[in-house]
Amino acid sequence: MRSYNPDLTPPWKKSAPVPEVPADRDLVVEEVTTGFCGAVIRCEAGTVTLEDRFGKHRVFPLDPRGFLLEGRVVTLIRPSAAPTRPTRTASGSVAVPGARARVARAGRIYVEGRHDAELVERVWGDDLRIEGVVVEYLEGVDDLPSIVADFAPAPDARLGVLVDHLVPGSKESRIAAQVTSPDVLVVGHPYIDVWEAVKPSSLGIRAWPQVPRGQDWKTGVCRALGWPENTGAAWQHILSRVTSYKDLEPELLGRVEELIDFVTSP
Length: 266
What we know:
By secondary structure, the chain is α/β, with parallel strands linked by helices. Helices cover 26% and strands 20% of the residues.
């Protein structure tokens, strides 16, 4: 006869079940015992590696009930070895599996600097390759009129330009106004630097800090947020938190989409 051993633990002493969550890359969690908060960068058999906002790495065991996700206790599990194929690109466009890059168009999109170019590539890279659009950076817009003249835009070689801090009365707006060719579209966002186009919530901060006039803006941001004053490392941290268009402010999203449409129009 099979023995019967009932569970006599009082209901109020039983641990409630918690959800199991795959430790996918870039998932932000907090380890319950240490309070270390970071994004998943690697998950191996039995362990997960987190990276905090300063770039520090910590390895933790995949213990049951070992992490907090958005304030709730969860159990992290190793992700499936065969992730499903994405149906959307990072920009939100329909993904085209196996699509080859188109031969580059004569038209181009110019952005101000390397960080702008890397951010555009991170979100719109798949779309740009399919459309055959090359993105180049200018290292500033002071010489924009002469750069446009050298490019020699035409109906079959349109030029789109993305400018930082394009607001009424700014130096950038005065320079942009000098470009009048119908085959050139100059648009911009209101932010001092493209860093600000990344949503603060994607970085785990409440807001971008106000940097006093006269200070280097990027260095001032690092100082105000308590980050090491290494703007290159800070940018890599910021860029690593951008996984799709949802991490960017609409003031940038609309302008980049506008430029892509302009340079690819027949």
